[in-house]
Design brief:
Helix content: 40-55%
Low-confidence stretches: 188-195
CATH architecture of the largest domain: Orthogonal Bundle
Radius of gyration: 18 Å
CATH topology of the largest domain: hpI Integrase, Chain A
Strand content: 5-15%
Strand order of the largest sheet: 1-2-5
CATH superfamily of the largest domain: Intergrase catalytic core
Order of helices and strands: HHEEEEEHHHHHH
Mean pLDDT: 83
Number of strands: 5
Distance between the termini: 31 Å
Structural class: mainly alpha
CATH class of the largest domain: Mainly Alpha
Largest sheet: 3 strands, antiparallel
Length: 195
């Protein structure tokens, strides 16, 4: 779940909304087109992501993540057999331990367990720790010519949204370019250089 979240920049509910049919095994891609949302204590399925631009199809995944997903599928199939009639029949990739739909808080709970196990900072949300880190890392490590691909992968409506949220994590050279984009192309205020 963590690897898929980091590589796709998925939100928690998008991860728990993923079904095995969302994976294209031949092309090593995954599509984020639905989500689960928390309503009270219950998880409710929604047929689309947060916004229209949040619906993302055919996002490439690394060979390693695809390998782990295949192993995970095999383990889930074994669990179905082991549980028999107790298997709750979810078609989701990430389920609860009885094969029911995972709650949208599950990614957060998994991250907290990993943080405790490895003695990491326990004050980070899943959104900050995985989604924001993935997007920030990509913006820092890829040329500006790749930023539109990062924006699409993040599911943002336009590049200005991504830059306004993540510019503080980018290197100084990129900030100058982005300030120019923001002020000239998008008629928005330049991002602060030192925030």
């Amino acid at each position: 779940m963590i690897m898929v979240g980091f590589e796709t920049f998925a939100r928690r509910g998008e991860l728990t909304g993923l079904e095995w049919t969302d994976i294209n095994w031949e092309d090593n891609t995954i599509s984020l087109t639905k989500q689960t949302q928390r309503v009270g204590k219950e998880a409710v399925e929604v047929d689309s992501c947060k916004t229209e631009s949040s619906n993302r199809e055919n996002l490439s995944l690394s060979q390693e993540t695809m390998r782990i997903l295949k192993l995970f599928k095999e383990e889930q199939d074994e669990l179905k057999v082991k549980l028999g009639i107790e298997w709750q029949g979810s078609k989701k990739i990430f389920t609860n331990r009885f094969g029911g739909n995972a709650h949208p808080e599950a990614p957060y709970d998994i991250l907290k367990r990993l943080e405790r196990k490895y003695g990491l900072n326990e004050n980070v949300s899943f959104h900050e720790g995985i989604r924001h880190t993935g997007i920030s890392w990509a913006l820092q490590n890829f040329d500006v010519s790749e930023h539109m691909n990062i924006v699409k992968r993040a599911g943002h409506k336009n590049i200005a949204i991504t830059y306004n949220i993540y510019a503080h994590n980018m290197n100084e050279d990129s900030k100058e370019i982005i300030n120019g984009f923001s002020s000239k192309l998008y008629n928005s205020n330049p991002v602060a250089q030192n925030d």
